[in-house]
Specification:
about 400 residues; alpha/beta; VC0802-like; Rossmann fold; elongated
Length: about 400
């Protein structure tokens, strides 16, 4: 039998009557990830998803790496199927894990019986397989607490499977099970992390970027598209909505008090985000705001900014400090791109002394001189849509 990939499900197994919907979405997401990599058979049994290559052209190594980034999966293993007999299991372990057995100094065999008709208990099977491995590799010592090599044996419906442990998956819920949301994607560190974290909760992303040419360069725009492309490893294909924001910022600068520039700008962003959400059937708006990190992210400023929206505003990193956010950015591969020295629209016309305790009616009065609806409508009509793929 050929090597296959086993995917362990996470919180999906806790779902009740709607579990089938979650599993169906997960299998669909897996199929889409595997389609460019060859022919694979994908099916689910007993809280495990099986990914079987169907011919020699299937790129198993790439599929294995891709499956680690699928939300809804908590563990990924490359496993070797065999007949459901103790001797076949031991022989498969000796043959298929020979390299690992030669390199290790200590080992442990851990067995699980999903098929309860198997004649041996899990402990008996582990003892038998462990004995066979030790006979063939007398240099190996048993260590049940901290082994260098953990040999896993799973006896399931169709076959037994042997593998050398699982690597962590992405966790969370399958993208799409919780609807979609517009996510404000800048070129900074926070917004890609916020996008990743909300996608992990099963949300499909509609990225929205505000571009202020010529105050921001084409390289700044490309930086954001690169960040979006890095997120597709986890989220799949996305369409980035690039909003021309220059005219709005210039109107704010000409007509509004300087200390309110950033707040007025962010209120326009939220209005536009709501319009885009309505056009795309999205149910929420996602931002990378972290409470108190900058002047526009005080509690009062956040309240004033969000007052223009009727949709829920989700802020996944609101309680995280910068070090925590950077840690996630490094893990998901966005940090090095985020710190490239290209400006974004938030740095344009930054006030010298921004208002940190704004009063809503004062902000509304300041923007009353602006043709708000016309500016929003024009910006939405001129949106550029860019498709990014894994």
């Amino acid at each position: 039998m050929n090597e296959i990939i086993l995917l362990k499900l996470g919180e999906l197994v806790l779902k009740g009557l709607n579990r089938k919907n979650f599993e169906s979405r997960l299998l669909g997401n897996i199929h889409r990830r595997l389609r460019p990599l060859g022919k694979f058979k994908v099916y689910s049994r007993q809280s495990t998803v099986y990914v079987e290559p169907q011919d020699g052209e299937a790129r198993l190594d790439e599929a294995y790496e891709s499956m680690k980034a699928v939300f809804g999966v908590v563990g990924v293993s490359r496993a070797f199927p065999c007949e459901k007999t103790a001797s076949a299991i031991a022989e498969t372990a000796l043959r298929c894990l020979e390299g690992e057995l030669n390199r290790a100094r200590t080992f442990k065999v851990e067995s699980k019986r999903a098929d309860k008709s198997f004649p041996m208990t899990s402990i008996q099977l582990s003892q038998y397989v462990g004995g066979r491995l030790h006979e063939a590799h007398p240099n190996l010592a048993v260590d049940v607490k901290n082994p260098e090599l953990l040999v896993n044996v799973e006896v399931r419906d169709y076959a037994a499977y042997v593998h050398a442990g699982a690597e962590p998956g992405a966790g969370g819920l399958p993208v799409g099970v919780n609807g979609s949301a517009v996510t404000l994607l800048s070129g900074g560190i926070d917004s890609p992390v916020a996008s990743f974290m909300i996608a992990k909760r099963g949300v499909e992303l509609v990225p929205l970027h505000f571009f202020s040419y010529p105050y921001t360069s084409p390289q700044a725009k490309e930086k954001v598209l690169t960040l979006a492309q890095k997120l597709t490893r986890y989220c799949g294909r996305m369409t980035v909505h690039v909003v021309p924001f220059t005219k709005i910022q210039e109107e704010i600068r000409k007509n509004c008090p300087e200390d309110l520039f950033t707040l007025e700008m962010r209120r326009f962003m939220m209005r536009i985000a709501q319009k885009v959400a309505e056009e795309n059937g999205a149910g929420a708006i996602v931002t990378g705001e972290s409470l108190g990190q900058v002047a526009s992210q005080t509690m009062a400023a956040i309240a004033v900014t969000g007052a223009v929206c009727s949709l829920p505003i989700l802020r996944p990193v609101v309680g995280m400090d910068k070090e925590e956010i950077v840690s996630v950015a490094r893990r998901i591969g966005t940090f090095e791109t985020s710190i490239l020295p290209y400006e974004d629209c938030c740095t344009v016309f930054t006030p010298r002394h921004p208002q940190t305790r704004p009063v809503l009616f004062e902000v509304e009065e300041a923007e009353s001189v602006l043709p708000v609806e016309d500016l929003v409508r024009e910006a939405v009509e001129l949106i550029e849509r860019v498709v990014v793929k894994p």
